[in-house]
Amino acid sequence: MKDFARGQGRRNALGQFIKTVELIHQRCPICGRDVINYPSDVKRGARFCSPECAGKSLSQTRRGPTHHHYIREKFMCEECEAIFDDLPSKNRKFCSRSCASKAAIRNRGGIKGKNNPNWKGGITPLLKSIRTSKEYKAWRRAVFNRDNYTCQKCGAFDRYLHAHHIILVSEDFSKVFDIDNGLTLCTDCHQEKHPELTLTLKGVS
User: Fold this and answer.
1) Cβ of 26: how many Cβ atoms within 10 Å?
2) Dist CA 198 CA 167 (whole Å)
3) Contact status, residue 197 vs residue 169, Cβ threshold 8 Å
4) Cα 130 to Cα 137, 163, 169, 176, 189, distances in angstroms
5) Can you tell me the distance from the alpha carbon of 48 to that of 26, in angstroms, rounded to the nearest whole number?
6) Every domain of the chain and the residues it spans
7) What is the chain's pLDDT, residue by residue, as a tens digit (205 residues)?
8) Which runs of E-coded beta strand occur in 46-202?
9) What secondary structure does DSSP assign to 9-23, as a single string?
10) How many CB atoms lie within 10 A of CB 161?
11) Within 10 A of 94 (CB to CB), how many other CB atoms are there?
């Protein structure tokens, strides 16, 4: 039974052991242990004693240029102009995170106005640029805090609120960020102040 369990043959109908194949003795190239394999397994490349040794062999041989999927292309860093290698699918523009961060800071406002590569001639309307500025958001929040987030005309506090300029920006630009020139109003009350405009929840449409 021992020989049959090891796969060196088979039993016939009479229970007699018949030797059918000559197994091949090998030595594991990683740990040096003796390995017994069928000839068909050897043809398929079996030569290790365990999956662990097979994995070690792959990690040692299939690395870098010796790997069958290893393909590299040369790229130039858009920040420091250094040449580096990477996979073609990555399509990297920078050689390191440091260069990528420097470029992101420059493009997001580190260089403003005409010196910024994203400058488009100052096409953003003045009022829109004011409402998207940090100064306007801070002024709006200060007006709301002073008025306790309550409409100063109808007393509503459960509606969407606007920060209204008492003296319009078009009349006196110097008071655009003056807290005393701000007044908390709900959308309906703010609409009454500007009947010529169509106000939305977020502002002027």
Assistant:
1) 17
2) 19
3) no
4) 9, 13, 10, 9, 22
5) 9
6) 2-64, 73-110, 126-204
7) 344 444 456 666 777 766 667 788 889 888 888 888 888 888 888 888 888 888 888 777 666 666 656 677 888 888 887 888 887 777 788 888 888 888 877 666 555 666 666 665 665 567 777 878 888 889 999 999 999 999 999 998 888 889 999 998 778 888 889 999 999 999 889 888 887 666 655 544 3
8) 73-76, 83-86, 161-165, 182-186, 199-200
9) EEE-TTS-EEE----
10) 23
11) 20
Q: In degrees to the nearest 10, what's the CA dihedral of 40, 45, 50, 54?
A: -170
H helices present in the chain, as ranges = 2-5, 39-43, 51-61, 97-105, 126-131, 134-146, 187-193
**Single-letter amino acid, residue 38:** Y
Structure tokens, 191: 């609409």
User: Longest C-alpha distance within the chain, in Å?
Assistant: 113
